[in-house]
């Protein structure tokens, strides 16, 4: 694990291309405990009162959230930088006639779509891999309609560095934006492949939302119940993830 210089979208996309197949297998098999028992339930809870007519899945990966909303929504678009993930998503979601998949950045997608095209945007574990947080937020705001919601989950800015063991590294400063390379891992499995995530303080996310014209509606710092905790190798001592629900201003 190490601090690195800022990366490009192309470099980040190549990293996710390399882990796409194993990530798909982890989620399909249930080995990614957090996806099924923490993140997806949380997204369902936060989106319960939202308009699902036209949904955008930002950083859709192999399309698990896309497909989940495809069975509940009028139309869903999944967008991802990783070409390999989009290939896998197209195979997995071929039966959905109301799902579109785009190999692109959300910024490029927003430049081509009509403004206010979407009624809800979801970004599950995506924003901490975004090279440019501000341009991503602005792109999402552009293609969301008035009073539409943006719901996202990410690694907890305060507790993740403690959980991953780099909070005491000499190069770590909580208040800075830091690109970090590390072997990709879940609580049950560590891969040889390297991916990059970006540490940003919580204030950075809140300020980016405000700058893009969003109002913060709710935040959640989930801790699994006792039954779910038993699915993990070790109990949670603190929240590992943060969820945010924001509304686009009129």
Question: What does this protein look like?
Answer:
This protein is an alpha/beta fold and 250 residues long. It has a single domain (2-248), classed as Rossmann fold, CATH 3.40.50. 36% of the residues lie in helices and 28% in strands. It has nine helices and ten strands. The chain has helices at 9-29, 33-46, 64-70, 83-92, 106-112, 133-143, 160-164, 202-212, 226-229, and strands at residues 2-4, 54-58, 75-80, 99-103, 118-124, 144-155, 178-185, 190-199, 214-220, 241-248. It has a seven-stranded mixed beta sheet with strand order 4-3-2-5-6-10-9, sandwiched between helices. Helix 4 links the parallel strand 3 (75-80) and strand 4 (99-103). The N and C termini lie far apart (43 Å).
SSE map:
Elements: E1 2-4, H1 9-29, H2 33-46, E2 54-58, H3 64-70, E3 75-80, H4 83-92, E4 99-103, H5 106-112, E5 118-124, H6 133-143, E6 144-155, H7 160-164, E7 178-185, E8 190-199, H8 202-212, E9 214-220, H9 226-229, E10 241-248
Parallel strand pairs: 2-3, 2-5, 3-4, 5-6
Antiparallel strand pairs: 1-7, 6-10, 7-8, 9-10
